[in-house]
């Protein structure tokens, strides 16, 4: 539920969003069509690409499929000044050999090493968008890979800042976004080299998979428990590693589950890959000792593995390293 605060003040009408339906006051949409853009961004951050906006009576306002290109805006000149607003986007620009154009990034970007010299704009879910506008970038690479980032995309739009919005749901999407970024930056040939390397790595992983897929649980966060759902690129990584996500049937990109649901899913192996947590601070024993998971066979057998979130949680050229790490663990079962 969201309060829609009018720019000129006055009573704030309410909007209610879910993946299946978005309820908006018709009058508010007529007065501010950007509300539909905000609804699309909210949906994209949760893995959906289908808008079903209705008014208070349930009558349709807009029903359509949309693309991420609908959410961004093109650069108006050659792209020489770039801002990245997600660690995966910084790595993408670097893979294209263009990081020298990056003038600022959000706080959690740590690769390539040159990020240390960039101006920092604040946390990934709350960068200083006024400062972004002041820097007058030719293009911002924004993201909708995490719920909450829709506020950034809509905030950039409100400030008239050109942006390429990235939110891949599969390796195929990542490859398409590499090509889009290559076109934006004027380096399409380099983009094709990155794509070719990723495709070759994926093919090698696919060929090495065991004949029987292992049931895999990957944990984004321990309390409450979050895991990838149907609309997450991580499913592809698990498949390339020789596994299948036990919650791949759940709608959305990231879904909350209960200990009882995990026990019922009965994975063969579990990976802890908590968002924003360094590899050395990941604690497999947290899952093994967690109340409610006493009957989880994988935990009892010690089949809980650390997985660096810099690979599993950053959709880009380095993501296949997560598949390699999982493949080694699955091969040892």
TrEMBL record:
Which segments does the entry list as coiled coil? none
Q: Where is the Fe/B12 periplasmic-binding domain?
A: 81-333
Q: Which InterPro entries match?
A: ABC_Transporter_SBP (IPR050902), ABC_transptr_periplasmic_BD (IPR002491), Vit_B12_bind_prot (IPR054828)
Q: Give UniProt keywords alphabetically.
A: Signal
Q: Which Pfam families match?
A: Peripla_BP_2
Q: Which PROSITE patterns match?
A: FE_B12_PBP
Protein name, as recorded: Iron complex transport system substrate-binding protein
Q: Which organism is it from?
A: Nannocystis exedens
């Amino acid at each position: 539920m969201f309060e829609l605060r009018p720019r000129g003040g006055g009573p704030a009408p309410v909007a209610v969003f879910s993946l299946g339906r978005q309820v908006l006051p018709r009058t508010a949409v007529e007065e501010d069509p950007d509300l539909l853009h905000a609804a699309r961004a909210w949906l994209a951050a949760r893995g959906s690409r289908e808008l079903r906006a209705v008014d208070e009576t349930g009558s349709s306002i807009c029903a359509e499929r949309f693309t991420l290109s609908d959410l961004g805006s093109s650069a108006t000149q050659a792209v020489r000044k770039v801002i990245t607003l997600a660690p995966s986007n910084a790595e993408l620009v670097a893979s294209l050999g263009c990081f020298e154009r990056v003038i600022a990034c959000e706080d959690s970007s740590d690769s390539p090493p040159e990020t240390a010299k960039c101006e920092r704009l604040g946390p990934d879910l709350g960068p200083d968008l006024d400062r972004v506008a002041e820097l007058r970038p030719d293009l911002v690479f924004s993201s909708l890979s995490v719920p909450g980032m829709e506020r950034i995309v809509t905030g950039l739009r409100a400030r008239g800042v050109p942006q390429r919005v990235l939110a891949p749901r599969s390796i195929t999407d990542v490859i398409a976004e590499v090509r889009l970024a290559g076109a934006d930056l004027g380096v399409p040939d380099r983009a094709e080299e990155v794509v070719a390397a990723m495709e070759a790595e994926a093919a090698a992983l696919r060929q090495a998979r065991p004949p029987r897929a292992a049931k895999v649980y990957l944990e984004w966060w321990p309390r409450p428990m979050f895991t990838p759902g149907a609309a997450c690129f991580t499913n592809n990584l698990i498949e390339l590693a020789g596994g299948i996500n036990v919650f791949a049937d759940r709608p959305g990109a990231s879904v909350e589950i209960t200990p009882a649901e995990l026990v019922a899913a009965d994975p063969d192996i579990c990976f802890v890959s908590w968002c924003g947590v360094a590899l050395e601070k990941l604690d497999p024993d947290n899952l093994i000792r967690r109340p409610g998971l006493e009957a989880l066979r994988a935990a009892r057998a010690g089949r809980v593995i650390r997985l660096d979130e810099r690979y599993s949680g950053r959709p880009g050229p380095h993501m296949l390293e997560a598949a390699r790490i999982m493949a080694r663990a699955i091969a040892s079962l």
